Amino acid sequence: MTRTIWSRIALAVILIWTLLPIYWFLKISLLTPDEIARFPPPLYPLEPQPAAYFNIFGFDYELSNGITRRASGQANQIIRGLQNSVIVSIIVTVLTLAVVAPLAYVFARLDFAHKNKLLFAILLAVALPPVSTLIPFYSMYVQLGLNGTILGLVIVTLTITIPFVTWMLIGYFRNLPQVERLARIDGFSRMGTFVYVMLPMSRSGLAVAAVIAFLFAWNEYTYALILVNGTTANTLPTAISGFLFQHPEPQHMAAALALTILPPALVAFLLQRHIGEMNLVEPVR
Q1: Which of 36, 129, 211, 256 is exposed most, by the fewest CB atoms within 10 A?
Q2: Residue 61's beta-bridge partner residues?
Q3: What region, left, alpha or beta, does residue 68 occupy, with left being phi > 0 and alpha being psi -120 to 50 degrees?
Q4: Rounded CA gap, 70 and 49, in Å?
Q5: What is the DSSP string of 221-246?
Q6: Residue 165: its pLDDT value, please?
């Protein structure tokens, strides 16, 4: 009984710690200028106004008191950053799954020469901090003309997502039932076994991998700041960081931050059913 109480208290603390900052900037995005100026600030919007969300997309909005809130001067960079982030995240997610699914399967289910050495190389790539490769990547990208391009950002983000997601899926594939021999008896080739048997069995793991790859690409800031910041390939995180130093209205800044939550939340919602099935997979003893 005591253990259950402490577990619930710990869960409540974690939820408050996680959700309070999100609630706070969502609240700020709905405040009126008068409420923003109050001290102490209100705990919740007394007169919620969605004006900031219209403003950051370049639209004026008339408040209930007749005052018109003008469009944000940073609307163009926010819109372009949002578009680029969505493009990069979708491409990175699709390419990551296309590469990682067969790669992780091979490492998990097959034996071949130098397997352990290659696994160590993947682990090393996961452990390597991105900032340590910034200068080499920047130098190479300048010579190849990839700096300031979406293609360049996709390539460099894949160097993060592919090793990490591969390492994660190797453990997942190892825990799937050993059905390859039965599939081969039924007439499937090795590739057919992977495509028609193993991939459907691993859809929950692939759903989690898709969410992780999307989050990595969506939140990528270090490489984006150096390689595409200030160009037409600017992404939403770098756009918001530049937005911060231009002294925006608090409501506009809060609305832009709230905007960063929506696409990842949508991806997680769409894949929620498959992610929930992950708990149903029984590990092989």
Answers
A1: 129
A2: 69
A3: beta
A4: 14
A5: -HHHHHHTTTSTT--HHHHHHHHHTT
A6: 92
**Tokens 């577990």 identify what position?**
7
Cα distance between residue 235 and residue 150, in whole Å: 9
In angstroms, the CA 50 to CA 180 distance is: 55
Contact 281, 208 (CB under 8 A): no
Both tokens of 163, joined, read 């090793």
**Do residues 208 and 278 lie in contact, with contact meaning Cβ atoms separated by under 8 Å?**
yes
Right CATH number for 76-280 from 3.30.70.120, 1.20.120.450, 1.20.1250.20, 1.10.3720.10?
1.10.3720.10
* The pair of three-digit structure tokens given for residue 210, joined into one six-digit string: 């898709």
Could you tell me where in the chain the CATH 1.10.3720.10 domains are found? Answer: 76-280
- Range ranked top by mean pLDDT from 87-96, 126-135, 199-208, 244-253: 87-96
Both structure tokens of 245 = 């130093």
* Mode of pairing for the β-strands spanning 61-62 and 68-69: antiparallel
Place of tokens 């005052």: 67
Position 120 confidence tier, pLDDT thresholds 50, 70, 90: confident
Instruction: Looking at the chain, list the stretches that DSSP marks H as alpha helix, in order from N- to C-terminal side.
Output: 2-30, 33-37, 51-55, 75-109, 115-127, 134-144, 150-174, 180-185, 190-193, 199-201, 203-219, 222-227, 236-244, 250-270, 272-276
Distant-in-sequence, close-in-space partners of 109: CB < 8 Å, separation ≥ 6: 173, 174, 180
Largest CA distance in the chain: 75
Percent of the chain with pLDDT over 70: 95
Task: Write down the residue that tokens 């979406």 correspond to.
Answer: 150
CA distance 229 to 237: 10
Instruction: Enter the tokens of residue 217.
Output: 């690409």
